[in-house]
Amino acid sequence: MMKYIFRFTPKFTAREEIILRDYLALERSKLANERTLLSYIRTSLYLALGGIAFLQLENFGNINWIGYIALALSITFLVTGIIRYHRFKRRLWTFYNNMKK
């Protein structure tokens, strides 16, 4: 298993059987995780569009660097969002499986 630099929560061991309230909480967490991924994608697309717009300006050749920075940030946001989505999804899956035992 991969070691992460920042671990936000300690490992959890469930003592009780999963009930409806816990199941619904897990579903809310999954939906929030998906919504956060979509926010990362939206931000990435806005940065890409802004970067392309800056690169298309003809009379402002000395500010092309802003466009390149925006494009680099766009890729960074997209990759970060995907990594965080999958990491949290895996942690929820592990948590759910621990609760079922």
Quick recap of the structure?
The protein is an all-alpha fold and 101 residues long. It has helices at 20-56, 64-100. It has 2 helices and no strands.
Structure, explained:
Pfam families: DUF202. One of its GO terms (cellular component) is endomembrane system. This is DUF202 domain-containing protein. The structure is a single chain. With 101 residues, the protein is mainly alpha-helical. The chain has one domain (20-100). Helices cover 73% and strands 0% of the residues. It is rod-shaped. The model has no long low-confidence stretch (mean pLDDT 84).
Describe the secondary-structure layout.
Layout: H1 20-56, H2 64-100
Helix pairs in contact: 1-2
Provide key terms for this protein.
rod-shaped, 101 residues, single chain, 2 helices, mainly alpha
Q: Sum up the overall morphology in one term.
A: rod-shaped
Tally of helical segments = 2
Number of strands: 0
Derived structural class? mainly alpha
Which spans have pLDDT < 50 for at least 5 consecutive residues?
Answer: none
Largest sheet: none
Q: Provide the gyration radius in Å.
A: 20 Å
Count of domains = 1
SSE succession: HH
Mean pLDDT: 84
Distance between the termini: 21 Å
Q: Note the beta-strand portion.
A: under 5%
DSSP helix fraction: over 70%
